[in-house]
Amino acid sequence: MLGSGSLMAQSMSDSQVLEYVKDGIRQGKEQKQLASELARKGVTKEQAMRVKQLYEQQNNVNTSKSTGTDINESRLREETKKNTSDMLEDHPTTQDLARGDQVFGRNIFNTRNLTFEPSVNLATPANYRLGPGDEVIIDIWGASQNTIRQQISPEGTINIQKIGPVNLSGMTVSAANDYLKNALNKIYNGLNNTTDPTSDIRLTLGNIRTIQINVMGEVVQPGTYALSSFSTVFHALYRAGGVSDIGSLRNVQLVRNGKNIATIDVYEFIMKGNTQDDIRLQEGDVVIVPAYDVLVKISGKVKRPMRFEMKKEENLATLIKYAGGFEADAYTRSLRVVRQNGEEYEVNTVKDIDYNIYKMRNGDVVTAEAILNRFTNKLEIRGAVYRPGIYQLSGKLNTIRELVHEAQGLTGDAFLNRAVLYRQREDLTSEVVQIDIKSIMDGTSPNLALMKNDILYIPSIHDLEDRGNVTVHGEVAHPDSYPYADNMTLEDLIIQAGGLKEAASTVRIDISRRIKNPRSTADNDTIGQMYTFSLKDGFVIDGQPGFILEPYDQVYVRRSPGYQAQQNVAIEGEILFGGNYAMTSREERLSDLVNKAGGPTNYAYLRGAKLTRVANASEKKRMGDVIRLMSRQLGEAMIDSLGIRVEDTFTVGIDLEKALSNPKSNADLVLREGDVISIPKNTNTVTINGAVMVPNTVSYMKGKNVDYYLNQAGGCSDNARKSKKFIVYMNGQVTKVKGSGKKQIEPGCEIIVPGKAKKKGNIANILGYATSFSSLGMMIASIANLIKK
User: Fold this and answer.
1) Which terminus in the chain has less CB density within 10 A, N or C?
2) What is the per-residue pLDDT across 145-175, written as a single tens digit (0 to 9) for each?
3) Per DSSP, what are the bridge partners of residue 330?
């Protein structure tokens, strides 16, 4: 598929891509859909740009074929141009452009959201001048009725039956209507009867002609363009890609018949919406964009910090208007202007009264600074008042007592003996003034006058002492630290912590308390005090009567030793009633679980049964220690490639057959929560792996020794360590081969022949072992043993 798609893309020429886009637009496809389809066909961005240029070249008419064009075809051509251009080159919008060095208005003629296309659905303009290619529709009604539809010929005439050629080229629609009324009066009576006309005519446009105009000067794509005869100067600039980096938006010239008939200022349209300069074009018109005269930059605290093109007579006030005015935090009394004087730079500080007379020059850089980050009349009050915050220094609010009253007075916890007044000196350093707030409020001390930027802080009594918290641990709903409150009891704290859990012991709750002696001058061997309590129905029934908690007390709610949650184990495989079972005794064993489950089926292979156990924290730690040892010798990359990590479970080697025949023996292991016994079906195969010629699985043959099975795998390879052969059993047990190993072979076992590693930690050797182990725990242990050797 990929190959054929690539071939298809390579076979699409630029012209085929262009036709594909045109067909898609005729079918009503969206631009995004077309772009996605072309991308799937392998059209690159570079090819898309070439196609765009090809399309523009086809539309920049170089031959004078300005015969009439069907209005629907004209509209389709313009729409195709617009959509093709948008799809192949996604012009940025005004909001997308970065500010600063962008020239205001320069992107208006290359944005996808503003095309300046003429509307073809307008009523026929009375001042529209007819020309070759226009289709005119002459409706006659009244005593005489007829409709004449004619296209103006290249000679400027239409041919009316019984009258002959009638020249309409160059006439306005209004003038042509009057002219035709006189001409047609020869064959239609009553048209010129001014007192009581019995017939009348109306001339309207059908299909409009295409005109050829030139766009020259500082535009992106100067050239000759074929446009609708309704097109204006702005649409011509849009078709030319807008002005270039040095093009003027304020002095666009329209030349007609060799004369400059208009100077267009695009800023009039942008700033005021004034379209009177957007003049309708005529055949042969030339739009000329000269280079700019004055380009200035304004930055800082204005709403539109950009570069602006100015006219020579425009002033600084006009620039501020173009920039959208000042921002709220702008310093408006003066602006800084950096100007080039022909030899060097100079700085001018222009006052606000001179904004209207200060003329702008090319290259000026204007900066609007921010206001100062300071206050002229700020007061602030903090601490133990009802409405702390910032207030106005005024004739009515200028003393401490008035400021406190303005803040709605002191709160109940206010520390009245002392307050602090922070004051800023003239040199901007700070000083602290001690205030007796109680006497000032009582009127027994002078009411201190305030100054700007004064900050009055009235502390709370709680700010001056360490209230601390109390902490509860253990079997409560929400063990945590809680704010201390006076007269808090043990019962209060337990209630605040959500109450006791089901597992909580009510016969022993301990409280530890800090040793606090601020007047002590020597060490103390006692580092804490301990109190023990019992509860009943949520109340203390045993312990120190009337015990009140203190800050930083810690409460320990113990777990009841008699509380036991259900502990489940599972059995699966060849067992009559497999599934989960709840343990009823701490001494429950393998045989007990098998008996609970109804015993093994007739197809059970008890010798292959295995026990999977959930690893506890200490077991996971040991596995982690082994992995870290391996990482030091093999490297972390090797460990990662093998996928070696600490697992949540591991396999315990068991002999279920012996456990069932000798209950309570050492073979009958004691179970623990989460254990899973798996009993496989009878199997009759033996697997040979490791350093053998062809690793293989063969049928179990009773009485055959290890060498027999090795021969079934093609024998040992040259790098085999024959003396280190071992056997892995289905139940997870591992044993070294002793002698011939005849008695060690069992159905389902796996014979492993280690290889001679050329260097310690050889990855091929380790991977060979890794594939044969029934659990990651066994693999880790075996690799660890290999490393040690």
Assistant:
1) N
2) 888 888 888 888 888 888 889 898 888 888 9
3) 370
Indicate the pLDDT class of residue 723, thresholds 50, 70 and 90: confident
Angle, CA of 151, 153 and 157, to the nearest 5°: 90
Decide if 737 contacts 616 (C-beta within 8 A).
no
pLDDT at residue 50, as a whole number: 66
Same domain, 283 and 269: yes
Distance CA 390, CA 387 (A): 9
Q: Which residues have C-beta within 8 Å of that of residue 144, sequence separation ≥ 6?
A: 188, 189, 190, 198, 199
3-state secondary structure of 624: helix
**What total number of domains does the chain contain?**
8
Q: SS3 helix, strand, coil % of the chain, rounded to 5?
A: 25, 30, 45
Half-sphere exposure of 132 (CA within 13 A, CB side): 10
- For residues 290 and 251, the answer to whether their CB atoms sit within 8 Å is yes
Find which of 197-201, 239-243, 249-253, 515-519 is predicted with most confidence, using mean pLDDT: 249-253
* Domain final position from 645, 662, 679: 679
Quote the CA–CA distance of 1 and 73 in Å, as a whole number.
39
CATH number at residue 283: 3.10.560.10
Q: Distance (Å, rounded) from C-alpha 400 to C-alpha 417? A: 15
Question: Do 580 and 663 reside in the same domain of the chain?
Answer: yes
Comparing CA positions, the residue from 27, 80, 93 lying closest to residue 54 is 80
Q: What rounded mean pLDDT belongs to the chain?
A: 82
pLDDT in tens, 174-201: 898 888 888 888 787 767 666 666 778 8
Q: Tell me: the pLDDT tens digits for 533-557?
A: 998 877 777 878 889 999 999 999 9
- Give the Cα separation of 651 and 286 in Å (integer): 91
pLDDT at 449: 93
Backbone angles phi, psi at 483, to 5 degrees: -60, 140
- The answer to whether residues 656 and 574 touch, using CB atoms and an 8 Å cutoff, is no
| Residue whose token pair is 């090797």 | 638
For residue 108, is it within any domain?
Answer: yes
Q: What is the SS3 assignment for 636?
A: helix
Which helix (H) or strand (E) is 643 found in, with range? none
Both 703 and 764 in one domain: the answer is yes
User: Does residue 269 fall inside a structural domain?
Assistant: yes
Domain of 187 in residue numbering reads as 135-205
Q: Concatenated DSSP letters for 656-676?
A: HHHHHHSTTSTTSPBP-TT-E
HSE on the CB side for 84, CA within 13 Å?
27
- How far is residue 126 from each of residues 135, 261, 339, 470, 603, measured CA to CA in Å? 15, 21, 51, 92, 104
Query: Does one domain contain both 269 and 364?
Result: no
Distance (Å, rounded) from C-alpha 453 to C-alpha 191?
90
Q: What is the pTM of this model?
A: 0.51
- Lowest pLDDT segment from 116-120, 391-395, 438-442, 486-490: 116-120
Number of other residues whose CB lies within 10 A of the CB of residue 742: 14
Map residue 40 onto helix, strand or coil. helix
Indicate whether 197 and 151 sit together in one domain.
yes
Quick count: other Cβ atoms within 10 Å of Cβ 183? 16
Q: What pLDDT was estimated at residue 59? A: 55
Q: Which residue has the higher pLDDT, 75 or 82?
A: 82
Picking from 637, 655, 679, the residue at the C-terminal end of a domain is 679
CB contact at 8 A, 152 and 136: yes
Same domain for 17 and 62, yes or no, is: yes
Handedness of CA 738, 740, 743, 748 (dihedral sign): positive
Contact 633, 773 (CB under 8 A): no
